[in-house]
Write a structure and sequence with these properties.
- It is built from two helices and eight strands; from the N terminus they run βαββββαβββ.
- The protein starts with a strand and ends with a strand.
- The chain has a single domain, classed as 2,3-Dihydroxybiphenyl 1,2-Dioxygenase, domain 1 (Roll), CATH 3.10.180.
- By secondary structure, it is of the alpha+beta class.
Length: about 100
């Protein structure tokens, strides 16, 4: 398991992407009206209009994801799969698997 990204909820994807690009020299990995994924000098930042909670994400393998039985596996439009947890204080943690290839 390794750190993958942090996700923020924003009011406007376009305005936020523009702001992060201007201030932090980001590269756009994915962009749509309700979700963007940015590379900020090698660290990934997800921006959402609220479909996903604020969270930290850790990349895991398919085998590691399979050990989290009882958790609903979400299938995302970019081909990733994930499960979400909440820690003792309600902070969201995502375990994510990227498609091969």
């Amino acid at each position: 398991m390794k750190y993958d990204h942090t996700a923020f909820i924003v009011k406007s994807i376009k305005k936020s992407v523009d702001w992060y690009s201007k201030n932090f020299n980001t590269k756009i990995i994915h962009y749509s009206e309700d979700w963007a994924f940015l590379d900020v000098e090698g660290t990934k930042l997800a921006l959402s209009t609220g479909k996903h909670p604020y969270h930290l994400a850790f990349e895991v393998t398919e085998k590691e994801l399979a050990t989290h039985r009882g958790k609903k596996v979400l299938h995302h439009r970019d081909g990733t799969k994930s499960v979400y947890y909440e820690d003792l204080d309600g902070n969201a943690i995502e375990l994510i698997v990227y498609p091969k290839g």
